[in-house]
Hints:
Blueprint: E1 30-35, H1 50-59, E2 64-66, E3 77-79, E4 87-89, E5 94-98, H2 113-121, H3 134-138, H4 151-155, E6 162-164, E7 169-173, H5 181-184, E8 213-217, E9 226-230, E10 248-253, H6 258-267, E11 275-277, H7 284-292, H8 294-297, E12 300-304, E13 308-313, H9 321-330, H10 333-340, E14 346-348, H11 376-388, E15 396-400, H12 405-419, E16 424-427, H13 435-439, E17 448-453, H14 461-468, H15 491-502, H16 506-521, E18 526-537, E19 542-543, E20 547-548, E21 553-554, E22 560-561
Parallel strand pairs: 1-10, 1-11, 15-16, 15-17
Antiparallel strand pairs: 2-3, 4-5, 5-7, 6-7, 8-9, 9-10, 12-18, 13-17, 13-18, 14-18, 19-22, 20-21
Amino acid sequence: MAVTLALSAACTPDGEKAAPAEVKPQAGGTLNLILRAQPDFLDPTQVYLTTAMNISRLIDRTLTTFKDAGGAEGSEIVPDLATDLGRPSEGGKVWEFTLKKGVTWEDGSPITCAHVKYGIERRFAKEYTNGPTYPSQYLANSENYKGPYVNKNNNGAGLSSIQCLNESTIKFILKLPVGDFPYSLTMPVWSPVPPEQDTKANYTNRPFASGPYKIAQQFDGKGGPMVLERNPHWNPSTDGVRKAYPDKINLIIRENQDEEVTDELIKDQGESKTSIALQTDATPNFVQQIVNDADLSKRAMSGAIPGTAYIGINTTKVTDPRCRQALILAFNKRRFRGMLGGSIFGDYATTMIPPDLKAYKKFDVFGVDASEEGAPEKARALMEQAAKDGKPCAKTLSANFQDTKRWQRAMSTVVEAFALIDITVKLEPFPARGYYTTAGTPNKQGDLTVGTWLPDWPGGSSVIQPNFDGRTIPKDRNTSGNYNFAQLNDPDINKKIDAAMAESNLDKQQVMWGDLDEEIQKKAPIIPVIHPKVLRMYGSKVHNAFMHPAFGEADISAMWVG
């Protein structure tokens, strides 16, 4: 899933959860979450950014979910709405789940199999172009299904590959065996939606709650917060993950104010005492102060994000692989990372799959680790070869990135690095809010696009397939929903993605993903930059702030104030 880069002493540097505090958790109070931008969507059908998924877990429940823990334990899944992690048959091509008794909506009515089926069916409607495409990739007989809003939802039958055996038992029939299917079900796109509450385009403003919180106040578009209050019909006895300690949670937008937010949280006065910078890293000028001050470091969440920050090279525009390879060689990783704050904010990357995943394969296709400041001479030689063959590399490239001070500083180094090989980079930032929606519209995308990817679950399939499967690129290039920023559509790569997906032995499958990562990198579709780390401050009254590996930020559902 796509993330916004933004570290806390509640986690050790490798992201493991620290020893529990001596003080016991207490319920009540108000927790303030400081966001860099308003989430693009809260409609579970379209949620795909990490912060939105973290928030969504307070409002929406799914059949399975991740444990509320840091480090490796947080990558484990447990039943949520379901009684278990599923019952596979036919070699993993068919899966059945049973809903727990006593799970209800915010009005007290029961959550049924029909609600789960309907929620998933919404993803097939033409109205929803954003969000994960796993339902259409996995579910059988879905090629011609148009969603629940047309043809009376297939004359009342809906999608045939989702079957309700009774009110509480749901059966999924897949196109091919998917051994890690229960991991996919942690995503909001698989969560239930009651048809009678479906307001279509407006549902993102006020999704109907099945989790411990409901929306009491929406974002007003004028800088006012979103307010979450307790869902009185959430039954904690059916939920082994969410703690729901605060009475109220405020979502406060502070666009392009990283330095101000860091300064306020360091001072720890007033509302700052119960606030946490959910997305915003401490700015470079404060890092040494935080690291060297024992009291401040106790209020800083630090650790590695199991993901990759990269720059996609649009293969439909930069068509010659030698020109793309030249960009990889000329890129100055040291200066780029320095502008983000230095090594405390990430380790250099040469792969798309991060080292935390079992699928990770260590390789350095172009030998860039040996020249972290770039190798412009080697880049020039490749460009000269391309020119001799009548395929000269473009002298001007456009670059898309989030319009924040942090990314503006980092992208200035790209301009300087590529100037050394006589390429002019035109910086064309997109607003932070809606960035992945805008950048995910193929016709709006420039030559270079900055992205950060956190695996949807700890498997290579959730990295390689969404980022490099050409069949996920919208056919209508004016439609959003694309996460393949390289716009790579290679038939051979697509076939090998299918082969890896179909491998039922998960150990063998992970090896296949690592090999495929290396094969893809040889085609030079992206510049892997860093595997990120974070440093994020929170107030003295915020407790149990640890980084969750599934979201790359603090687990909201576990925190309490007092």
